[in-house]
Write a structure and sequence with these properties.
alpha/beta; Rossmann fold; 256 residues; single chain
Amino acid sequence: MSLARFSLDGKVALVTGSGRGLGRAIAKGVADAGAAVVTTSRTAAEAESAATEIRGDGGRAISMAADVSDPAACTALVERTVAEFGRIDVLICNAGIILPALAEDATQQELDQTLRINVGGYLYCAQAAERHMTPQGGGSIVMTSSNASLVAFPELLTYNISKSGVDMMVRTLAVEWGERNIRVNAFNPGYMDHIMSRSEGYERNPAVEEMIRRNTPMRRRGRVEEVVSVAIFLASDASSFITGTVLPVDGGWCAL
Ligand SMILES: NC(=O)c1ccc[n+]([C@@H]2O[C@H](COP(=O)([O-])OP(=O)(O)OC[C@H]3O[C@@H](n4cnc5c(N)ncnc54)[C@H](OP(=O)(O)O)[C@@H]3O)[C@@H](O)[C@H]2O)c1
């Protein structure tokens, strides 16, 4: 079988939350696989540095600052992508936040903010992309979920809820948009080597590391490249008959 189906040559991808972390690595990965890429985050300098790195390696990339909790900003992101590169084939919804708190202490502000970014931001970008993907004849939408959608992690109530919402959004969009050849899938990382912003205090302590070791059959955190390859697969024609899936990338945690 030809490996051409795994290539993103000639495709155009928008990757949200790509100024740093997993999103930045995914943006670099899809560019290396051949796509022209739009990088974005609220921090303009980080988004631009990601695009500069891709261009420095011979790829095609531009950046745009945006807050994905604003539906108009999501529309503007997609419109800019199409204006610059002529189409949008791949949308990777990845921009997310985590606000650890005991369940009894979670506030309305924390719940609102988490849902507006982690769920709203994914939906508004997907809706804006659909408006172009349908007349184009299709596309692939990939959402960075988490195994926190499948396992109830303590002290992460608002985050867990938001990622469950992402999984159901994936299934619903896949069902509604399947006939339009728009595929919608999620991958669900476990604890990665890269620690999400603002979660350091929660994550880096011996009790958490022991919890990860005990619950992960592979007995380690995930490496960033181990989600990049999955994102490329789901974005590419190699997964052309896969839609509505949520795929754990967690060393077997969800198999326990
Ligand atoms: N790291 C892990 O172990 C892990 C595990 C499972 C799932 N995930 C998921 O993977 C995704 C990326 O996580 P990460 O670890 O790479 O996090 P990160 O290092 O904190 O990066 C998050 C990215 O999203 C951007 N962002 C946050 N809020 C935004 C908003 N309102 N509008 C636009 N951009 C926004 C951030 O930039 P600005 O702050 O400048 O906007 C940054 O570029 C998230 O969806 C997360 O839930 C991560």
